[in-house]
Design a protein that fits this description.
Shape: elongated
Order of helices and strands: HEHHEEEEHEEEEH
Radius of gyration: 21 Å
Strand order of the largest sheet: 5-8-9-7-6
Oligomer: single chain
Strand content: 25-35%
Structural class: alpha+beta
Number of helices: 5
Largest sheet: 5 strands, mixed
Distance between the termini: 46 Å
């Protein structure tokens, strides 16, 4: 019989964190959650300022030429880009029993990676410009995805049947430990493996 049919009959595959992956020392009944922010890009204010100048220049060109209605769509596009860039460069990342979620400026939903598709979490070093071609919500040159805001450590999520997902967060090790603990809890693996 085909493997897919056999898997359906057995039920979903139970995921376990990789051996040696960081986990939290937590009781089986305690609530596990981690919240942090994306690492802030040093030059983010320059990028945002350039975007604001483009919005103002578009409006000024419309007024100067007497064709404001023609320039308003351009200004609106620049304004949306500035808003999204601001949201991505200052995002709140939440790890809980639902998975890993990123919210721009703490409220705008950007990304959700359900816990059910995460196989394990590790810490990896990323270079947004070299590996993703820029900053923000990006697709990597190797097929990976992520919210990458600065060069350095990132939470790396291995996803079942899909490419890895990266979040450059302020405490990547803590986020990885929380994800792995939640995965272990779902699969029935004890959380009391060591994590200093």
């Amino acid at each position: 019989q085909p493997a897919a049919v056999a898997r359906l009959r057995r039920g979903p595959r139970r995921r376990r964190p990789a051996l040696g992956a960081p986990v939290l020392a937590a009781s089986d009944s305690g609530r596990i959650a981690w919240t942090g922010g994306t690492v802030r890009l040093r030059g983010r204010f320059v990028l945002i300022a350039v975007g604001c100048v483009l919005v103002a220049a578009s409006l000024a060109a419309g007024v100067a030429t007497g064709a404001l209605s023609l320039w308003l769509p351009t200004a609106a596009v620049f304004a949306v880009i500035v808003g999204l860039l601001t949201a991505m460069l200052d995002a709140r990342v939440i790890v809980d029993a639902r998975g890993v979620r990123a919210r721009g400026l703490g409220v705008l939903p950007l990304v959700t990676v359900p816990l059910t598709v995460i196989e394990n979490a590790t810490v990896a070093r990323v270079d947004p410009l070299a590996e993703f071609g820029g900053w923000g919500l990006r697709g990597g040159f190797d097929g990976s995805w992520g919210i990458v805001t600065a060069k350095g450590e990132a939470l790396r999520l291995e996803r079942a049947g899909d490419s890895p997902y990266f979040f450059t967060v302020t405490d990547a090790a803590g986020a990885a430990a929380a994800v792995n603990t939640l995965i272990g809890r779902r699969s029935g693996v004890g959380e009391n493996r060591s994590n200093p």
